[in-house]
Amino acid sequence: MQPKRFGGLIAASSGVVLLALVMGMGGGASAQSEPTPTPSAYGDLLDTEIRGIDPATIGGYRTGAGLGMALPAELNGYPGPRHVLDLVNELELTSDQQTQIQALFDDMLPQAIALGEQILDQEAGLELAFRDGTIDEESLRDRLISIESLRAELRFVHLRTHLVTLEILTPHQVQLYNSLRGYTTAPEDHGAHHGHE
Question: Cα dist. 163→36, 78, 154 in Å?
Fold first, then answer.
């Protein structure tokens, strides 16, 4: 008689385990049907003028701002004309230096604005093509090549002004500029080789 009781206990235990498994699966299914919301950090960019581009970047392109494009120069001892003009007194620029740098900046700005507007037009077209579902691989490649070509030209316009500005300043002014701008890790003194003595 004992073997039968033992077999009954095994069957009962198996039933309890099976019931637990079924309930566990049911709970998992319920949990999967109610996922935890994970809002995207890009949600705020849905309603910008050009979807996906923040207002500050759009404004930067429209005003000819550097948008960080010239940082390889700025952080390595090649001053930018805009900031040099902001530090006319601190750098003790001569009238000739100020005239040259102002002319350099005045020449650069309209070029940067024109290229920035073209980039925004191209970016708007790219975004709209995705939104309308009219994009394909071939047109995507063409659009990206066009945008990046314009961006490269814009970056050249900004970086070139840093090269020319270095030629106008003295080594001491370059060193002072770096200090005033807070570049505590002193860049290589390119002015000693390229600027005025």
Answer: 52, 6, 15
- The model's confidence at residue 22, banded by pLDDT at 50, 70 and 90, is very low
pTM across the whole model: 0.77
Between residues 51 and 11, which one has the greater pLDDT? 51
Note whether 186 and 178 are within 8 A (CB): yes
CB atoms within 10 A of CB 27: 10
Of 64, 81, 96, the C-alpha closest to 163 is: 81
**How many C-beta atoms surround the C-beta of residue 66 within 10 A?**
20
Both tokens of 132, joined, read: 């309308």
With contact defined as beta carbons under 8 Å apart, do 162 and 190 qualify?
no
DSSP 145: H
Classify residue 136 as exposed, middle or buried by CB count within 10 Å of its CB (0-12, 13-18, 19+): exposed
- Amino acid occupying residue 36: T
Place of tokens 């996906």: 52
Give burial (CB, 10 Å; 0-12/13-18/19+) of 173. buried
Give pLDDT, residue 35. 80
For 84-113, b/e burial (b = at least 16 CB within 10 A) is bbebeeebebeeebeebbeebbeebbebbb
Output the pLDDT for position 180: 97
Instruction: Indicate if the pLDDT at residue 174 is higher than 50.
Output: yes
